[in-house]
Design goal:
WD repeat; 43% strand; 1 helix; WD40_rpt; five-stranded antiparallel sheet; 29 strands; spliceosome; four-stranded antiparallel sheet; mainly beta; PRPF17; mRNA binding
């Protein structure tokens, strides 16, 4: 059955529009720039803001988690600076004295967590919303992935853009390889179902993991970084050995929903996954990757949003945001819902627990604000 003349004309118009739309954006690449918002980027000893403060009442350099964690109760501070919703927030590695956020206003921002809690730097260079960010181990550089199909590498301190990586597909998640000797490699899960590994030094794709049947939403390194786990719109969870492009494990059953947010527990044993049927599912992160049926956390409403979740550093609690702007805290042992409170006017997209503090968490929302709770 051939399309009628009218339909044919309509089709041609749509196709012409599509081709045109693609061209316009490619012509003008945006130049990257960065704005420093503080006067004293270096203190009297010449140390930059990346230097870990020692006057905050808690040892940010310790390797031990706090002995006992408590449920956060009161609002301490609100950071506002994003003009649109926030899509991801990340702690500065190990010390967590700084906070990196990215949002739908195309910006990435770096914030102080202690003292005056100012916005330190804004990184501009994406033409569309920024979807994900990831620090390297030292925190000296970070990656940002945007809907403009670019992954950019930034110098945290100077704000310079050090590289740009694109395979013309939208990167939904980016992760540096956490191994110290592989910090020049990063993986990106893309809209065309692939996981792509880039070498920063050569700006070349060095490996492609192409087995998912839908866009790849998360990548999580497990098992001392020898393997990583990916989740996708195809509702499956796949486990990969690093640098081997065939999945070693494929987990899917008809009852599973897609899981657009995954967090590894601090002890490295469990993967907690935000499932689209309003549950948090827990899989073992070692060898078998079995679903732990005893641990399912419910009561919140994620309704199709990729609300990320986190553990308290001592593993007593698990926290998550939801589509209603609330923060939920469950007891990890019993899976009982301990506390919930309203944090944002719109979706609460991310909640992260401070690795050195007993009860400090930061929540981020689509209302453009981030809030510190204690």
């Amino acid at each position: 059955m051939k399309p009628s003349e009218e339909e044919q004309e309509e089709l041609e118009e749509i196709l012409a529009k599509r081709q045109k739309r693609g061209k316009v954006t490619e012509d003008k690449a945006m130049e990257e720039k960065s704005i420093l918002h503080i006067k004293d980027a270096y203190d009297y000893q010449g140390r930059s803001f990346l230097n870990i403060p020692q006057d905050v009442g808690v040892n940010l350099k310790s390797d031990e988690p706090p002995e006992k964690c408590f449920i956060p109760k009161k609002l301490l501070h609100t950071w506002s600076g994003h003009s649109k919703g926030i899509s991801a927030i990340k702690w500065f590695p190990k010390s967590a004295h700084l906070l990196l956020s990215c949002g739908m206003d195309c910006r990435v921002k770096l914030w102080e967590v202690y003292n005056e809690r100012r916005c330190i730097r804004t990184y501009l260079g994406h033409k569309q919303a920024v979807r994900d960010i990831c620090f390297n181990n030292a925190g000296t550089q970070f990656l940002s992935a945007g809907y403009d199909r670019d992954v950019k590498l930034w110098d945290t301190e100077t704000g310079k853009c050090l590289g740009q990586f694109s395979n013309k597909k939208i990167p939904y998640c980016v992760k540096f390889n956490p191994d110290e000797d592989k910090q020049h490699l990063f993986v990106a899960g893309t809209s065309d179902k692939k996981i792509v590994c880039w070498d920063i030094n050569s700006n070349e794709i060095v490996q492609e993991y192409d087995r998912h049947l839908g866009a790849v939403n998360t990548i999580t390194f497990v098992d001392e970084n020898r393997r990583f786990v990916s989740t996708s719109d195809d509702k499956s969870l796949r486990v990969w050995e690093w640098d081997i492009p065939v999945d070693m494990k494929y987990i899917a059953d008809p009852t599973m929903h897609s899981m657009p947010a995954v967090t590894l527990s601090p002890n490295g044993k469990w993967l907690s996954c935000q499932s689209m049927d309003n549950k948090i599912m827990v899989f073992s992160a070692l060898n078998r990757f079995k679903l732990n049926r005893k641990k399912t956390f419910t009561g919140h409403m994620v309704a199709g949003y990729a609300c990320s979740l986190d553990f308290s550093p001592d593993m007593s609690y698990i926290v998550s945001g939801d589509a209603d702007g609330k923060v939920y805290v469950w007891d990890w042992k019993t899976t009982k819902l301990f506390s919930k409170f309203k944090a944002h006017d719109n979706v609460c997209i991310s909640v992260i627990w401070h690795p050195h503090e007993t009860s400090k968490i930061v929540s981020a929302g689509w209302d453009g604000s981030m809030k510190l709770w204690d």
